[in-house]
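Name: Virulence-related protein
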Amino acid sequence: MDKKEILKALGEYFGVKPKYLGAPSFAYQIINNQGEIIIVDREGKIKDNAGLELELEIILRGAEVYSKTEESLNSQVILTMDGHTGNTLRNLVNMISSKQGLIKKALGIEKDIVTDEFVEKINSVRLTTLEDFEAEALNIGLEKGGGLGFDFNKKSISFEFLNGLEDEGIKKQFAEALNEGAIKLKHTSYKEKKTDNEKFTMRTWLLRLGFIGDKYKEARNQLLRNLSGNSAFRRQEN
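Structure predicted for Virulence-related protein:
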């Protein structure tokens, strides 16, 4: 089945007209009955909002677009886009990008949270409104957002990269701190600086995010335990 036939089949199944997204993706977007986004790329591959490839036959048999288990869905931190603009969503991407190496090591994950391509392209254009960010994110490809998911129909952000944290409270604290920080800041850099003291750099950043006092003591401990260095002193003794 070629791309044209795939689009026709999906459009008829969901009762909608596929929306052409234009350059540079040359993809088509379809919104299903649950408000979930399905993308048909230039090669005719079908993908869900997270970039996972889907089989047309399974969709047409009435299976759910998302195959995530109930357990993983319940453990995922999802926040609304309330208070965000196009620029503050970019701030969120940049905040994570600028500390990506430390966050990955702290959480014990190998896959990038946000890809270099997504970060560089989202920073190459002027963004003011949520619609500006949505248009550019869709052109780049939402799957390249990696572990940071954007659902523009539900106006929500999913912090999928935090799923490895077992403590639900700490997971929520970290996501909320990142989200609130992105909204408050006027501008953020996406460039990651090298550090010779991972624990000190991470601790300083966490304190700037508001992880101060006993309320956040356990969160700080968990997010620092996999890192090298000394959290109390910038320069380490030889």
